[in-house]
Amino acid sequence: MAAPAMGTSRTAQNDVSQRRKKGPGALATAYLVIYNVVMTAGWLVIAVGLVRAEALKFFQTGALLEILHCAVGIVPSSVVLTGFQVMSRVFLTWAVTHSVREVQNEDSVLLFVIAWTVTEIIRYSFYTFSLLNHLPYLIKWARYTLFIVLYPMGVTGELLTIYAALPYVQKTGLYSVTLPNKYNFSFDYHTFLILTMVSYIPIFPQLYFHMMRQRKKVLGHAEDCSKIE
Amino acid sequence: MKHYEVEILDAKTKDKLCFLDKVEPNATIGEIKSMFHKSHPQWYPARQSIRLDPKGKSLKDEDILQQLPVGTTATFYFRDLGAQISWVTVFLTEYAGPLLIYLMFYFRVPFIYAPKYDFTTSKHWVVHLACMCHSFHYVKRLLETLFVHRFSHGTMPLRNIFKNCTYYWGFAAWMAYYINHPLYTPPIYGEQQVRMALIIFLFCQIGNFSIHIALRNLRPPGSKTRKIPYPTKNPFTWIFLLVSCPNYTYELGSWLGFTVMTQCLPVAFFTIVGFVQMTVWAKGKHRSYLKEFRDYPPLRSPILPFVL
């Protein structure tokens, strides 16, 4: 029934970590290829109509699936790292840009949407080609080089957008709960947004330098390989 | 008597770190660790992990040299576990915090609430009751740490104290802030709700204590023996029939009681987070019991009877 040539067995969970090195099974690969092609196309759509809000919300939210991919094990990345990244994007899309109408026409939104768009087109094509074992060096190079500019660009756009949203949040008390109430709980979204902005200070450098280290590992190695050949 | 030679290599770099000759065959790993400590004073025994295989499990301090699968020249691998701190120290610190922090909010020490409320007391009697329960809980924990628990391990990594204290102290402050707030809203169903919650809380506190005593009595002083716990004459221990870690079950019950008593969402969050962590621990403990004892009672669940 099950083809032994497939990388996975029925008792998948124990084997997954050992087989991760050989990648996902055939079915999972097919699914991932479809997922990544759809994502590439989606982000191209966004690129074409650059500030099509609906498309952004749909495809960015769709990225939640990526957390599931890690959790289930068909993608070898860490659930925590991926979760973090996806949640921060979803947060910016829904809890800031969508929720605070007044910031939707800000230039800062354009800034991070462009950064995300270019990044995601490259990233999803990178995954698509990798899964098919046919990765053009240009895509690999782009993925591990353009972030040097795109990452700070995106972060700047995100921070400026949150900052622009602050006065409206304070004025309207958006997503905030005050005392007294029967749950004996309070939440100030305005303060929360400020803390979020502050959290970029320790977090962004770590992610940025992680990508730098990945770059050296991936591109440095490739250079060595081409020298040997 | 034939003496052994012991060489200790770094598990990662395989460098030769130490060579001991004329080691008694009945020397324990603990004694070897002490000898290693002499040549490397920065690695006190508590932070040494000695194994037969670089990627293998740590050997126990009680293991005896001649009973290990080694030749007369034994090769061990060493891994540094990092700075260590004693369990007792960690427990005392992490429990003393909530006790004192909660009281600061209860007495409305300045700079927490608006100045006009400084050093005032709440007009709701449930707030006084909650303070007594919360304080009792942590005093109980401190006393148990000093007089009841028999720890398997002496130490844990130093970074744990920061992690643990952030958790306990942070949540204590968050809960205490709302319960002792001038705008606190007492439970909807009034005295009935508080009375029921108090009964649950006290019942589970006694239960939790009974389990701690039962577990202590399984283990002679100074030993690290592990035995299957069974119900004793104390009815609070009869839950052992259904659950491997009833101390966690009772702890969950206590905090559910406290949540209902205070009707405070942050307390509910604390209860949920604690429950998740205790479930992880209970499952691990349950698995170890099953692995170690062939005759482990099959009816038992890790933490919730029949469910989890």
**Rg of chain B (CA only):** 24 Å
Rounded average pLDDT of chain B: 93
Overall pLDDT metric of chain A: 83
Q: Kindly state the number of beta strands of chain A.
A: 0
- The count of strands of chain B amounts to 6
Total DSSP helices of chain B: 7
Quick one: overall form of chain A? Answer: globular
Shape of chain B: elongated
Instruction: Report the C-alpha radius of gyration of chain A, rounded.
Output: 20 Å
Structural class of chain B: alpha+beta
Beta-strand content bin of chain A: under 5%
Number of helices of chain A: 9
Oligomeric state of the chains present here: heterodimer
Major protein interface: A-B, 8 and 12 residues
Polypeptide structure, described:
- The complex is a heterodimer of chains A (229) and B (308).
- With 229 residues, chain A is mostly helical.
- Chain A has nine helices and no strands.
- Chain A is globular, with a radius of gyration of 20 Å.
- With 308 residues, chain B is an alpha+beta fold.
- A four-stranded mixed β-sheet of chain B has the order 2-1-4-3, covered by helices on one side.
- In chain B, a hairpin with a 5-residue loop joins strand 1 (4-10) and strand 2 (16-23).
- Chain B is elongated, with a radius of gyration of 24 Å.
- Chain B has helices at residues 29-39, 87-106, 125-147, 159-179, 190-217, 246-262, 265-292, and strands at 4-10, 16-23, 48-51, 73-80, 84-86, 155-157.
- The longest helix of chain B has 28 residues, at 190-217.
- The A-B interface holds A 179-186 and B 178-179, 181, 183-185, 188, 262-266.
- Chain B: It comes from Aldrovandia affinis.
- Chain B: GO terms for molecular function: very-long-chain enoyl-CoA reductase activity.
- Chain B: The chain crosses the membrane at residues 85-107, 166-184, 196-215, 235-250, 256-281.
- Chain B: It is found in: Endoplasmic reticulum membrane.
